Amino acid sequence: MAAPERPAPAPAVPPATEPEGRGLVRSLTHRQTTMIGLGSALGTGLFLGSGSAIGVAGPGVIISYAIGAVLVAVIAVLLGEMSAAHPVQGSFGAIAHKYLGSWAGFVTSWTYWFSAVVVIGTEVVASALYIRWWWPGIPMGVAILAVAAVVLAVNIINVKSFGTTEFWLSTIKVTALCAFILCAAFLVLFGLPDTEATGFAHLTDDGGFVPHGAKSIWIAMSVVMFAYAGFEVVAIASAEAADPQRTIRTAMRQLAWRLSVFYVLSITLVVALIPWKRLASGDGSIEASPFVRVFSDIGVPAAATLTNLVVLVAAVSAANAHLYGASRLLHSLGDDGLAPASLARLTGRGVPAVALAASTLGIAAAALLAFYDVGGIFSILMSIALFAVLLVWLLILASYVAFRRHRDAHPEEFTGFSVPGGPKLALVAAAGVLAVAATAIEVPDMRQAAGVGLAFTAVLLVGYAVVAWRRKAVVAGR
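Request: output the structure for the sequence above.
Response:
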């Protein structure tokens, strides 16, 4: 079946004043789009999941985060180049459709939607854990549903209100993280009147910098890379950005270096302040959050309470951003006839309400697991989401190679920036993504996630075959 040519090589950008109810509304500003990207990436993976990563690699986890930062920076910049050339509804799913074939667009969009839905579940679980740090008597299911109500309310109003809310949530989160880095650096270098400066001795105590061997740095990537997932939302938001070319070009670059600084520096300071064995935890409990434990362990309870509030805001913000991204991709699938047509419906304010409701399945699954008291909810959901994200990244990189081949052959069709050596960088990044996926050999949670992910991918391919067959039958019957 011949794939329809969507999107065009250099699409015209719809005006920002597109009438409501007829399509997605271009009302997101440059600053809002950048903060949406930070909001989705700076979440539970860093603030809660880092405890598990520290347990695997000890202080050597710093290297894991640095490698992850480089890998994500490459993918983000390459995705930014493609998205600036094609700021369309469906984002990287639509681009995969054009350059790899309709099957790739189908699998990319549905897989990302699946991963985002699972990530939403992890973020609300984490939010509930943070709430229970203050009020342990609140049932997990009740706390999850309370967070879900807030996130859904923010998304259902309109995209401008969502953008404004996410901008301020992300601003609070980024400001607090900067304050945390400054305070932690002061404690490491100077200490307090009744507390000596720790210096960097903890980085080599308890078995050295890499206590479990160099292999542990690779194994820790199975946890570390989940913390970086979510930056793709910037590309999805390009369909509702008032100035998509400028927004994507600058937002992806800013996102890449900001995430690198925030993650690597904050983890270095955390491990320098507290011995890594006391931070290490893989049970997914609130005590596993190194950022809260830093202040509670050194005897600053007020700061620990404030930090818990910040990580709660971070989790809600990330859930908010991922719900936005999932609903937009699902709306695009419905609009393309690759999902039920009802998912393409918009409210009078330009919000895909049906797609939004369907994208809350992760929250429902998390609440159900909590109701039945399933242990290790966070680690289970995190591993499944990561495996799906890795597959999406591979498809994005493959799309980029095909995109650059076309762009280099037809430079007159394109404007905007081009990444020097982009195709080679894409191959290097793909090797890095495959190396992370290969941790399934050593990590039980990743093996379980690989089973779920591969089964889901097989279902998607069968689903695509059915859709393609039906379309062919319709064309033949005309």
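The longest helix spans residues 301-335.
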